[in-house]
Specification:
Length: about 180
């Protein structure tokens, strides 16, 4: 199986603008940065959370605590992803109890990743609130989960795949739509 790109739906500048807008929306909704924590879902949610954190720092002059969570062992499909799943590090910078947590991920699709991430966060404490920020919301929810902050809504067919590319892993920042071809 191979991924074939069909089109670029956000270039690097558009991604940057969307993340800056999300940062402003987070500040406004939180009425500042008090008790705010950013947690990125491994892998691509982590660099996106860092970019949102940098945008918040530029506006407010405050470093918001930033962490990374790995959902691998919380997945409801763990038994189907193979004998050696990729494990990433979970680093939560502080006790999240009574904090306003912003969970950051690249693409919201079925909602199952978010459900698993909520379980991880609850293992680290009891936040005052958890809000969801995603760069792309592509629809097709299987669980009653909705984002609070969205970079772009992109209706897709279930055959299509959206890939968010970040400099840390892909040497460029963009969002592409494509398909997986079998054979």
């Amino acid at each position: 199986m191979s991924f074939v790109e069909k089109t670029t739906i956000m270039n690097g500048s558009e991604v940057g603008r969307a993340l800056t807008r999300i940062a402003h929306e987070i500040i406004e909704a939180n009425k500042g940065t008090a008790n705010l924590v950013l947690l990125g879902v491994q892998r691509r949610g982590v660099p996106l959370a860092a970019l949102i954190g940098e945008a918040i720092r530029k506006v407010e002059g405050v470093e918001v605590p930033l962490g990374a969570i790995d959902i691998t062992f919380y997945r409801d499909d763990l038994s189907t992803i193979g004998p050696a799943p990729r494990i990433n590090e979970t680093t939560v910078p502080m006790d999240v109890t009574d904090k306003n947590v912003i969970l950051v991920d690249d693409v919201l699709y079925t909602g199952r990743t978010v459900r698993a991430a909520l379980d991880v966060i609850m293992d680290w404490g009891r936040p005052r609130a958890i809000r969801l920020a995603v760069l792309i919301d592509r629809g097709h929810r299987e669980l009653p989960i909705r984002p609070d902050f969205v970079g772009k809504n992109v209706p897709t067919s279930q055959k299509e795949i959206i890939k968010v590319k970040v400099k840390e892993y892909d040497d460029r920042q963009e969002v592409v739509v494509g398909e997986v071809l079998e054979g």
